[in-house]
Amino acid sequence: MGQIRQLFTVVGALTLLVGIAWVAHGTGVLRLPGTDFMPNESVWTINGLLVAVFGLIVFIGARWFLRREHPSAN
Length: 74
Known about the structure:
The protein has 74 residues and is mostly helical. It has helices at 2-27, 42-64.
């Protein structure tokens, strides 16, 4: 169970970071050279927000629901 928790924690954190990067790029805060299709586009801001929320849910779910202490079934 510990390996699954670590996997979901990493996946959630990376998804959250990608979402934040998309929001920053879509709002024009972050400008990468050679990428002229994303800056100041509201589609990327909305998609990034949705991806960031999903990543946060996965991260919190991994930390909260997949914790090591489980009540016994007795």
